[in-house]
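User: I'm new to structure prediction. If I give you an amino acid sequence, what do you actually give back? Let's try with this one:
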Amino acid sequence: MASLSAAQIALLRSIPAGQTKTIQGPARNEACRDFALTGGTGNNRVLKVFSIINAEDAQMLNIAMQSAGDNSMGGALSAAKTTWAQRQYNKFHGNPYQYQANGKQYLPAAGKYNVQYVVDKVIKKAIEECGLTRAWTDIGTHYYLCMHWPTADGVAEEHWWIEAYGYNIEIIPSWADLKILAANEQDPDPAHYSQVRIGLRGLLPAHIARIDHVLNNGVLVPTPQGGWH
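Assistant: Good question. You get back a string of structure tokens that encode the predicted 3D arrangement of the chain. For your 229 residues, that looks like this:
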């Protein structure tokens, strides 16, 4: 895992209240989840995992599975990840696992596999597959991977970001690069949203390089009231 240097942390903390540090220019067209999970190096397929699990019935599941393996949709999921996603679907929908272990077929624990639980599982799986490492405890960690989504969407995703030393670091496709602002300058999630916030032991070198670029080459712009949306 990589960490911000003392000099980078000092630059981060020098961003004044009410200001955001960013790079200006044409849209980068980068997905928020791509930066949050990989630092912008790509190759994450987590969106398709969500689509598999959140399928409402067997027909939709088959469509989602076909999409996951369709190269025209951005590359096939590995067989192992597809199998894992289908197992999460079965647990979430209260179906028996589609496999046996030690001669016993396992059944989901009633009520355990709610939306929050399964989304948390997907995020943790994505963290591991992208080379990030979860912190054993949130106490003492300075880095978090966050994602929020409208609760009514079920097992789904909307916006992803990194939190470092109390600063939100995020991007959406229409932005030129990262925006870095204090977490307390972003409105809290609306009541109809859910969030996953998972402590990390550190970031990837790609994250650090991107953050360093903005810290050293970015400009300060006023943070809109309530943060960036």
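You can read the tokens as a compact description of the fold. Here is one thing that stands out. Residues 115-129 form the longest helix (15 residues).
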